[in-house]
Amino acid sequence: MKEVKAPKGTYRFLEDKGDFQQLVDRYDNFLFDCDGVLWFGTDVFPGVISVLQKLRKLNKQVLFVTNNASKSRRDLLDRFESMGVQAAEREVFSSAYASALYLKEVLQFPKDRKVFVVGMSGLEHELDAVGIQHIGGTVGDSLTQDPEQNLKITGTDFSPLLEPGVFDDSVAAVMCGIDTDMNYVKMAKAFRYLTRQNATEEVKSGEKGGGCHFLCTNQDSTFPSKSGSWPGAGSVWAGIQESTGRKPTVIGKPNQPMLDTVFAGYSFDRSRTLMVGDRLNTDIAFGAHGGLDTLLVLSGISQEAEILQEGAAVVPTYVTKSLGELDVLDP
Amino acid sequence: MKEVKAPKGTYRFLEDKGDFQQLVDRYDNFLFDCDGVLWFGTDVFPGVISVLQKLRKLNKQVLFVTNNASKSRRDLLDRFESMGVQAAEREVFSSAYASALYLKEVLQFPKDRKVFVVGMSGLEHELDAVGIQHIGGTVGDSLTQDPEQNLKITGTDFSPLLEPGVFDDSVAAVMCGIDTDMNYVKMAKAFRYLTRQNATEEVKSGEKGGGCHFLCTNQDSTFPSKSGSWPGAGSVWAGIQESTGRKPTVIGKPNQPMLDTVFAGYSFDRSRTLMVGDRLNTDIAFGAHGGLDTLLVLSGISQEAEILQEGAAVVPTYVTKSLGELDVLDP
Description:
Chains A, B: Its cofactor is Mg(2+). Chains A, B: It comes from Malassezia psittaci. Chains A, B: GO terms for molecular function: alkaline phosphatase activity; metal ion binding; phosphoglycolate phosphatase activity. Chains A, B: This is 4-nitrophenylphosphatase. The structure is a homodimer of 331-residue chains. Chain A has 331 residues and is of the alpha/beta class. Chain A folds into two domains: 2-67 and 254-328, Rossmann fold (3-Layer(aba) Sandwich); 96-250, Rossmann fold. In chain A, 31% of the residues lie in helices and 21% in strands. Chain A is built from twelve helices and 17 strands. In chain A, the strands form four sheets. Chain A has an eight-stranded mixed beta sheet with strand order 1-2-17-16-15-3-6-7, sandwiched between helices. In chain A, helix 12 (304-308) links the parallel strand 16 (293-297) and strand 17. In chain A, helix 4 runs parallel beside helix 5 and helix 4 crosses helix 10 (256-265). The radius of gyration of chain A is 21 Å and the shape is elongated. Residues 198-209 of chain A have low confidence and may be disordered. Chain A binds chain B through residues 70-71, 120-121, 152-156, 158-159, 161-162, 178-184, 187-188, 191, 195, 221-223, 225, 227, 229-232, 234-243, 245, and chain B through 70, 120-121, 152-156, 158-159, 161-162, 178-184, 187-188, 191, 195, 221-223, 225, 227, 229-232, 234-243, 245.
């Protein structure tokens, strides 16, 4: 095991069978980021399927932790299956699922209140699954809740937004995620919910937190796809933050609410749990802040030079070329 | 003239006829912000029309400097007229006009290149007026340039954006302003123009600045209207900044390109020019950074307490209750 000194600490570079054997002996639970670790786009990295099988054979607990909130866990499982990666629903943690759980468990979001969603069906499904009412999202902005008749502003005539019924007094949270159908009207509605002075007293006082909560699934500024990067969740809600001057509670990696969700479902020994990811400032920071050891794989975004920079945010415990490298382990 | 000490300096509070007489004797040129100074929504403040007439009678040069880029100068003049405020086209400076001039004069934007607009007709008209080609804006995102057939992304299938013709190789600048029809596709297109690696060599090298310029009319986070505030230009482009990691050149107040436009049209003596506005961090900062004396009117956003705060950004030269106060001057 080669030790490498970086400005912010020391990491171990794993490269041979002995290194990987020590690694799997040292941990019981393996948390994996997906994009850039297991696959890129629709291409699974070589060796990954076999490595995951070997870990399961060794009775290791395998979990998948993704910031992708465009899909529900059910949709994500379809994706796992289509790529030939074995996974069960209870092994998959997405920022959409974590967001729904956060509303329910941490905020104890009242049953008679609604969430205004700026996001996609994956997020809506997860809210449904925990029994939280929501409006907005894919349902459309119009009074008829018909996406085809969405409310439209002409020039700077904002009067359509003033029609009775456009704003719902029972909204007590705005939840944002990636939304490829984001538009000005959604931003304007979120803005008003988050800045309104005339919330009913009940909403204002709230069971937990007054007024209207501002939550975001994740802060990734870009969204990776086969056709390259496109604006991500953090870019979708940037305008809502800018207009309201409010900073949202962000659920996904590198923030801890996401990890709290994992630990609410599994009573892991943190010292026997390893976070595996390809991004220093999301995956590795996420694990490190949560008291986990971390493994950076160089098959995705972050390269080794990033750790060696003076301004590196965090140092992983281990670094290796790719997850597939572990395939040298005995079957 | 009452002198008031603030943490960052001293200002004079103007309240009687003698104070105002000294003020008009001291300056030849008066630059006015509009919203919150002349009017609010469609209501002209009492005394304002008379004060402007008196200044003109005294042969003072009167100019209007607004960050509102939703309208062209022609449209703005219609608004002035409808409110009974006398103004000529050459007296009106908007951030849309300043942006078009900046492209033409400062960047010497090539005639065979195009600007991708995230903005409204006012901005498009000003680009037309200086002979700069543009796409996007109100023209629609579709290949047919028909806003009714706008390109649409379903889920996270970005393939419609990959159709040939969606991106125009001759785009060499992205210009953003307030856009009440902002949407994800516009953000995604701006993102790609601003991050593309495959710009033609000619665009990359450019006459001035390589790749693709990123310009914004103004950075106001909210847009004032009769029905209260709504997200402003700064909120519309926040997501583009977040996704690209690029900081735009911002033209409007408090930035100096806007003032450069005024001084390109008029050879004023800066020491005889007064900027009048209602916002400390835009209007007053704008004037102060440009070496002008400033008058804060308390009829709009900023109240006196803001100047007296420890963290105040700037101190105006003068403060008065409202522009209408000057109506005590002799006719």
